[in-house]
Amino acid sequence: MSAVPMTAPPGTRLLLDGTGADHAAHLARYGALPRPGLADLLAAVHHSGLTGRGGAGFPTETKMRAVAAGSRRPVIVGNGLEGEPLSAKDAVLLGRNPHLVLDGLELLARALRARRTVLAVPADADTSAVGSVGRARGVSVVPLAGGFVAGQESALVHQLEGGPPTPQDPFTRVTESGVDGRPTLVLNVETLAQLALVARYGAAWFRGIGSADDPGTSLFTISGSVRHPGVVEAERGSILRDVLAPAEPMEASAVLVGGYHGAWVPASGLGVRLTARDLAAYGVSVGAGVLHVLDVRACPVEFAAEVADYLASESTRQCGPCLNGLPRMATDLRRLAAGVRDNALPGSIRRMSRLVTGRGACAHPDGSARFVASTLDVFRGHVAAHLEGWCPSAQRRAAS
Amino acid sequence: MPVRAAEGCLVTTRLHIDWTRCDGHGSCAELLPELLTVDDFGFPLTRFADRDPVVPPRDEDAARHAVRSCPVMALRLYDAS
Amino acid sequence: MNGAGLNEALWALGRGTGVVALVMFTVAMVLGIASRSGRPLPGLGRFGVSDLHRTASLTGVGLVAVHLTSLLFDPFAQLRLVDLVLPFLASYRPFWLGLGTLAVDTLAVVAVVSLLRVRVGPRVFRAVHWATYALWPVALTHALGSGTDRGTLWLRAVAAGCVLAVVVAVGWRLTPSYAERGWSRHPRRTA
Question: Quick one: average pLDDT of A76-92?
C-alpha cells in the first residue's frame, strides 16, 4: 500500500512534519535536545501519561523504571520492525522523521546510562537512509528478519542475540534480562518520537491534546476500502469516523481496529472514540493504530479465513496450542466461508479460540483468537446467512 | 489458595509452564489432576482461568514431583505472594 | 575370613554388581524410550515411567560404583585408579577393561549432567543424553569380554535378553508411529 501522509484531522502534532535526514533543520524546527537526568525524565514521562504506541499500550514510565532498577547498565532498543502487514506508520515515521526517533533513543541512553543503543529495522526495507543517519548519531541500526511475530519484545531481543525471531518464555522479562543478559528497554519507534517531544515541550503540552486518560496524539494507518489509504496523525480519543474522514472511506460494513490481532467495529459504531474505555465494548484497544475498512461487497468471513490462514502460518511453532489450534480455526473459517452448511462450525471456532487463549509464550494465539471471535460476533447475521447457503456480500456484488 | 507459613506470612505458590519447551508429554496432568487436564492436542490445560495456576499446599508435593518428572523441564514453581 | 576368601568375595561382588548394573541400564534404556514416547504404561502412568527410568539409572550408577570399588581392592583384578579414567592401560585384559573405562567415563558425564539438568538447560541435557545410545553397547561388550564369566551360558543368556529388549525398544523408536504419542500432533520446533 502507499504510505502517503495526508492533511491530518484537527489536533495535528509534529510527528509527520519531520525534516528527513537533515539534522540541522531538525534542530532548527524542534529546538535543541535537552539533557535531563533520569529522575527528571521519569517525572516528565510520568506526568505525560505516555503509553506505548507499538500495540500493547504499556505505560512507558513503568518500563523505564523496571530497566532503571537493574544492576547492570541497560540496552535501549527502538522497535521499527512493524510486523503487522496492515501497518505502515513506523516505516513512514522513520522515513520522514528519523531524528525524532533517534532523539528518543539518545534521551533514554543518556538518562539510563545505556551500554548499547540499537534501532531495529526490517531487513527487507530500504534502510540506507535511516542507517547512515543512525550511525552518525552513535546508534547501531540493525536490520532484522521480519515476520508477524518478529516485533514481539523477546523475539526481537532473541534476534539481536543471534537467534531466530522466536518469542521466549515470559517468566524472565526482557526488562530484567535481555540483550547480553542486561536489562533491555524495547520501545516502538513512535513511542520514542513522542518521548522526544515530551522531553522538549513538557508533559503539560503533551496533555494539551487527546483525552485525560489517554493523552497526546498517535499515528494511524488507514487501509482497505478507502480512496486515499495512508498514514495520518490524530489526537488520542478522536472519533473513529473523524480519523477515517480524510481517507474518504467508501461504503463500509465494518472497520478492523488494531490489525490482525484486533477486532471489528461495525458501521453503526463508527461514532466510537478511539480510547481504551470506549473500544472495550468491542473487545479491543487502539493497538498500533491500524484501521482497515471492509467494504460491504467484501465477504467478512472470506477475509477472516485468509487472515486466519496467514496468522496460522506466522506461528513460530514453538507452543503446542498455537501451532495446533490456529490451523484448526483457519480450516473451520475456510469451510464457513466456502458455504459448508455445518451448524457446528461457529461453536467449534469459538471453542478453539478460547482453547488457544493464554496458552503460549506470546500473545499471538490470544490476538488471533480475539480477531476470529470478533468476526463471529460482529458478523453474526452474515455467518447465519452462510449457514443457510448464501452470502450477503456476494449478493451485493451481483446487484452492483 | 494462600496459607500461613510458620513465620506468619502468606505464601502463594504458582506453577509456571514454559510453553516454548512443553512437548505435550503429559506427566504433569497425571500428577496434578485437580489443577490440570489435557487439551485436544495433548497439552496441559489449567482447569481454572489462571495462566499460572495456584498450587494449594496439599498439592505441593505432587507439583514438585511433576516439575521433576517433566522430561523437557518445562515446569517450575515460584512464590507469587 | 582369610585373604584368599576375601579376594574371592570381592571378585564375586565385582562380577555380580557388574551384571546387575548391565540389567539396570538395559531397563533404563527401555524405559527411557518408553518415556520419550509420551505413552503411559499400565499402572505406572507417564510419570511412573519417568520415575522408574530414573530409579533404574541411579541404581545402575550405584552398582557401578560398588563394582569399581570392589575391583580396586581385589588384587586379582589388578585395577588401578588410573584405569578408571584412561582406557586400555590395564594389565588384565586391557581391551575389554578399557571398554569398561570408556563406559564409566561416559556414564559419569551423563549422570552428572542429568542431575544438573535444570542448570545446564534442556538442549545440553538432551545432547549429552544421546550418548547413552553409545554407552549401552560399550557396557554390554565390556561385560561379555571381561571377567571369569566370559563364555558362560548364564552370562550369554542374560546378555541375549538385554540385547533383545534394547533392539525391540530401539526398533519401536524408529517407527513413524512412535512420534504420535497417542495423540495427533503436527511436527514442531522444540526449544
Answer: 95
Q: From the CB of residue C164, how many other CB atoms can be counted at a distance below 10 Å?
A: 11
Q: Tell me the count of B-C CB pairs closer than 8 A.
A: 53
Q: In the prediction, which pLDDT does C178 show?
A: 84
Which CATH number does A23-207 carry? 3.40.50.11540
In the predicted model, is pLDDT for residue A96 greater than 60? yes
Interface of B with A (CB under 8 A): 16, 18-24, 39-43, 45, 49, 51, 76, 78
Quickly tell me which residue has 571381561 as its cell.
Answer: C146
Q: Smallest CA–CA separation between B29 and chain A, in Å?
A: 15
pLDDT of residue A3: 27
Q: Which residues in chain C have Cβ-Cβ distances shorter than 8 Å to B19?
A: none
Cβ separation A324–C185 shorter than 8 A? yes
The domain limits of chain A are 23-207, 300-399
Partner B contacted by C178 (CB < 8 A): no
Q: What is the dihedral of CA B62, B64, B67, B68, to 10 degrees?
A: -100
- Tell me the per-residue pLDDT of A8-47, one tens digit each, with 9 for 90 and over: 334 346 677 888 889 999 888 888 899 999 999 999 999 9
> pLDDT tens for residues C96-112?
888 999 999 999 999 99
Name the residue with cell 472511506: A249
d(CA A284, CA B40): 28
Question: Residue ranges of the alpha helices (H) in A75-127?
Answer: 89-96, 98-111
C186 lies in some domain: no
Note whether residue C189 is domain-resident: no
Residue A92 bridge partners (DSSP): none
Residue A315: closest CA among B19, C123, C126: B19
Total domains in chain C come to 1
Mutate to test the interface with A, among B14, B16, B20 (most CBs of A within 10 A): B20
Residue B31 has pLDDT above 50, yes or no: yes
Domain A300-399, CATH among 2.60.40.10, 1.20.1440.230, 3.30.70.100, 3.40.50.720: 1.20.1440.230
Strand order in the sheet with A252-257: A230-235, A217-224, A290-295, A252-257, A263-266
Give the residue on B whose Cα is nearest the Cα of A155: B20
What is this structure's pTM? 0.89
- CB distance A295 to A253 below 8 Å: yes
Question: For A324, how many CA atoms within 13 A lie in the half-sphere containing its CB?
Answer: 20
Domains annotated for chain B, with CATH where assigned, are: 7-79 (3.30.70.20)
B63 close contact with C: CB closer than 8 A: no
B-chain CB neighbours of A320 within 8 Å are 19, 22-24, 41-43
Kindly report the average pLDDT of chain C as a whole number: 87
- Contact at CB, A317 and C191, closer than 8 angstroms: no
- Site from A168, A176, A316, A319 to mutate, B interface, most B CB atoms within 10 angstroms: A319
Residue of B nearest to A357 (CA): B51
Structural domain including C44 reads: 3-180
CB A144 within 8 A of CB A121: yes
Other CB atoms closer than 10 Å to residue A276's CB: what's the count?
Answer: 17
Do residue A317 and residue C188 have CB atoms under 8 angstroms apart? yes
Find, in chain B, the residue whose alpha carbon is nearest to that of C34.
Answer: B25
Count how many pairs of residues, chain A against chain B, have C-beta atoms within 8 Å. Answer: 45
- Whole-Å CA distances, C148 to B43, C80, C156, C157: 52, 19, 13, 16
